[in-house]
């Protein structure tokens, strides 16, 4: 039995972060044939998606994670109204194994940073204003971006800028970073952006408004927060938590994340994971069905209303009725 369609309900969001693809997410989570109505929101942020699940899916329960300690205050606001139906864990989602029960109807991952994090100048996620180069989502642990730039090996810096930032001038920028160590230039967003600008590739035609340091900032942020490693580790854990017929929905914001999600989904669906995957069909297990052959993307109207949604891609997979472990 399908749960009834839940799209098109009242749109109410917490100030600060506009949840991306909100109706689409509620539609897929609500469409799971597993009607237990237990959900995991692994990226609580401002609670925009969690709130909508609680309000629009009757009797639903949500366990939410966010590694940013400042999300606790926002979770407390929601807990006032939903104390019996919401549990919040201020942790990295790679620790989701602490959740004992399984049989979840849906798991949501809305990756990347929230508008709260981008807009809080002192977090150092943006170079629109000068701030310390911090960039940690969890401000209570790990090394800041400045510490990473001052101390990491040249190889680690190159990987961050080339692979995570997809910046074509990675070699020149990495060398400039190592040469700038100890000068103070790596400690503030403004001085770091200026340094990168001297060596970065010029934005492609039509993308002139994008600052030349954008790709490098993305790469450093991904490295500082171990974003790809956490995603890789957590996707199988999230799938394991699903009930038969449960759905895993992942929103990504750049091609590297999207590629990881796409490959993982193909593996679950028993399809070749990449062009060199020559295994025969009987060497593959089919544990799930891909719901989104092509990713769901925001409408033109959503992008107009919320430009931060422009690169979002939602991919969804449904566990088979007898779907097992990865
Ligand atoms: C795009 S925002 C989510 C916004 C949320 N869906 C909403 O509607 O308000 C991503 C959130 O995920 C959190 N996050 C990212 N990676 C995480 C991880 N590995 N573990 C826990 N939280 C993480 C970030 O701190 C951020 O608050």
Question: In words, what does this structure look like?
Answer:
The protein has 2 domains: 22-116 and 227-319, Rossmann fold (3-Layer(aba) Sandwich); 139-224, Putative methyltransferase TM0872, insert domain (DNA polymerase, domain 1), CATH 1.10.150. It has 326 residues and is an alpha/beta fold. It has a 7-stranded mixed beta sheet, sandwiched between helices. Helices cover 37% and strands 13% of the residues. It has helices at 22-30, 48-56, 71-82, 115-119, 145-151, 154-164, 170-179, 189-199, 214-224, 227-240, 255-268, 300-305; strands spanning 38-41, 61-65, 86-89, 104-110, 242-252, 288-290, 313-319. The longest helix has 14 residues, at 227-240. The protein contains 12 helices and 7 strands. It starts with 21 loop residues before the first helix and ends in a 7-residue tail after the last strand. Residues 17, 19, 43, 45-49, 65-68, 71, 92-94, 110, 112-114, 137, 230 line the site of S-adenosylmethionine.
Short description:
The chain is an alpha/beta fold and 326 residues long. 37% of the residues lie in helices and 13% in strands.
Q: So, the CATH homologous superfamily of the largest domain? A: Vaccinia Virus protein VP39
Our Rg estimate from Cα atoms comes to: 20 Å
Outline type: globular
- The run of helices and strands is HEHEHEEHHHHHHHEHEHE
Work out the helix count: 12
What's the β-strand tally? 7
The portion of residues forming beta strands comes to 5-15%
User: How many structural units, i.e. domains?
Assistant: 2
């Amino acid at each position: 039995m399908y749960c009834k369609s839940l799209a098109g309900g009242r749109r109410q969001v917490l100030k600060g972060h506009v949840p991306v693809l909100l109706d689409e997410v509620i539609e897929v989570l609500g469409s799971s044939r597993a009607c237990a109505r237990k959900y995991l929101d692994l990226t609580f942020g401002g609670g925009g998606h969690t709130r909508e699940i609680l309000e629009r899916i009757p009797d639903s329960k949500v366990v939410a994670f966010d590694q940013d300690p400042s999300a606790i205050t926002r979770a407390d606001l929601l807990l006032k109204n939903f104390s019996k139906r919401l549990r919040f864990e201020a942790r990295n989602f790679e620790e989701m194994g602490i959740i004992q029960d399984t049989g979840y109807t849906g798991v949501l991952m809305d990756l990347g940073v929230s508008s709260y994090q981008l807009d809080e100048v002192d977090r150092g996620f943006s170079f629109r204003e000068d701030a310390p180069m911090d960039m940690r989502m969890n401000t209570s642990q790990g090394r800041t971006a400045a510490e990473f730039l001052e101390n990491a090996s040249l190889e680690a810096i190159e990987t961050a800028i080339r692979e995570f930032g997809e910046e074509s001038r990675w070699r020149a920028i990495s060398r400039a970073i190592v040469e700038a160590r100890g000068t103070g230039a790596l400690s503030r967003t403004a001085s770091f952006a200026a340094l990168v600008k001297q060596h970065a590739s010029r934005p492609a035609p039509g993308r002139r408004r994008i600052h030349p340091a954008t790709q490098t900032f993305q790469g450093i942020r991904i490295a500082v927060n171990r974003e790809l490693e956490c995603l890789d580790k957590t996707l199988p854990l999230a799938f394991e938590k699903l009930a038969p017929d449960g759905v895993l929905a992942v929103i990504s914001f750049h091609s590297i994340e999207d590629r990881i999600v796409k490959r993982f989904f193909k593996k679950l669906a028993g399809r070749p994971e990449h062009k060199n995957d020559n295994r025969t069909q009987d060497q593959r297990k089919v544990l799930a069905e891909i719901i989104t052959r092509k990713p769901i993307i925001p409408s033109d109207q959503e992008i107009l209303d919320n430009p931060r949604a422009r690169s979002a891609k939602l991919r969804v997979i449904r566990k088979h009725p007898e779907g097992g472990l990865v």
